[in-house]
Design brief:
The protein has helices spanning 10-25, 31-50, 61-73, 78-97, 124-130, 139-154, 158-162, 192-210, 229-242, 251-264, 269-276, 281-302; strands at 169-170, 175-179, 185-189. By secondary structure, the protein is mainly alpha-helical. Strands 1-2-3 form a three-stranded antiparallel β-sheet, with no helix packed on it. β1 (169-170) and β2 form a beta hairpin. The model is unreliable at 1-5 (pLDDT under 50).
Length: 306
């Protein structure tokens, strides 16, 4: 349940727009992240506006705790509250840096502790079924399976996959160059099987889809343009239905599967972190819990003394 949002005073709106301009132009966040920041900042400003607070310098820890208690009473999850605090920390830190306020009132506020949801992954058998190319193919089918193979072979984010340029994929060295979050570049290797699928797509499929048009995007649509994330989401759902996979599948699940299967087979955490593009190894460590759960189940199932 969301708190009721009211029209903000002009000076609040101006500060919010200044901050949004900063995260769009300087931090270059994704569109969904920008929307979340906008909503989180607006709800807090609406909250203090209803309490007739007009000077942001008067915000203190006590008020922030009352705000969080209000969110909790509305059954807003720990995860959502943690996201809100993170957004508001960034907002007030920005205002402080711009000398719009004297201090950041969120500086000493800790993020609520929340249980981390383990990412869902496909089994190796499910991946094999998903990546089985149909006997009868078309240029579009070859393109779709080249994307699926590359996604599983590299663990790319779907936004990274659909925005790949022709020059980013080196078929001779089997590396893909990606500009990830925070404009950080990374090189990720891919396997021989993925290479074969990409070569088929490049030689037999892509020219037929382009029909003489020019494009620097690797994976293109019938219109000769780059693909949207939503379209690829639809593609992976169609492929999973064709493979008889009952799980609710998403592109991110193939990324999770990539990481889980590497670690299960003995890959070191640091290498997986680099390939995934995680800035913090703690984000990658969550995949080790999946393997621990699997080992625990095996122990419970087969140990004679339980």
């Amino acid at each position: 349940m969301q708190p009721v949002q009211h029209r903000l005073p002009d000076h609040f709106s101006a500060l919010q727009e200044l901050f949004l301009h900063y995260i769009i132009s300087e931090r270059r966040l994704a569109e969904n992240s920008i929307k979340a920041y906008r909503a989180d900042v607006a709800f807090f400003l609406s909250y203090i506006h209803l309490r007739r607070i007009t000077d942001l310098n008067t915000i203190d820890v006590s008020l922030i705790h009352h705000y969080l208690e209000s969110c909790t009473r509305q059954n807003i999850s720990h995860r959502s509250n943690a996201r809100r605090i993170s957004a508001l920390k960034s907002f007030f830190s920005f205002l402080h840096a711009e000398k719009q306020i004297r201090n950041n009132p969120f500086f000493s506020i800790d993020l609520p502790k929340s249980g981390r949801t383990l990412p869902k992954a496909l089994s190796q058998e499910e991946v094999n079924r998903l990546l089985t190319v149909p006997t009868v193919t078309t240029p579009i089918i070859l393109r779709n399976y080249a994307m699926l193979y590359l996604l599983y072979s590299t663990g790319l984010r779907v936004s990274e996959l659909v925005s790949l340029s022709l020059t980013a994929c080196n078929l001779s060295s089997c590396f893909v160059r990606v500009m990830g979050k925070g404009n950080k570049e990374r090189l990720i290797p891919f396997g021989e099987v993925a290479k074969q699928q990409l070569e088929q797509y490049m030689e037999k499929s892509r020219p037929l889809i382009l029909k003489g048009r020019q494009s620097n995007t690797l994976f293109i649509t019938n219109r000769g343009k780059g693909m949207t994330r939503l379209r690829f989401w639809q593609i992976i759902k169609e492929a999973s239905r064709g493979a008889g996979i009952k799980k609710k599948i998403s592109p991110h699940m193939l990324r999770h599967s990539f990481a889980t299967h590497l670690l299960t087979r003995g890959a070191d955490l640091r290498s997986v972190q680099m390939m995934l593009g995680h800035s913090d190894i703690g984000t990658t460590q969550i995949y080790t819990h999946i393997d621990q759960d699997r080992l625990k189940k095996i122990h419970q199932q087969f140990h004679p003394r339980g």
